[in-house]
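Protocol step 4 of 6: structure prediction from sequence.
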Amino acid sequence: MTQLQLDIPDEAAAWLEQQAQTLNLSVSKYVAQLIQQHKMTLKTDADRTQLDKVEIDEALARENGWPEGFFDLYGSTQNAPLERPDQGEHQTREILL
């Protein structure tokens, strides 16, 4: 386990000690729990933001006439790459000036 040394204001240190004592935890364990809870909050917020983005994308797609579920196909050919067939020779045209 990694040890960290932090410089924090005296008021913050006193608050941490009080909160840890209230929960019958060491300050170290209390701070570790705070960090873990914050990580979970960030993950939840990120998931919520991703869901909001999907809802917005679907709304924009409907407004612009795309059929429902159209963008679900994006990336669906991941295991079968698209191949462009031979295009043949380019046609040479007469240049008129």
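Step 5 (inspection) to follow. The CA atoms of residues 77 and 83 lie 11 Å apart.
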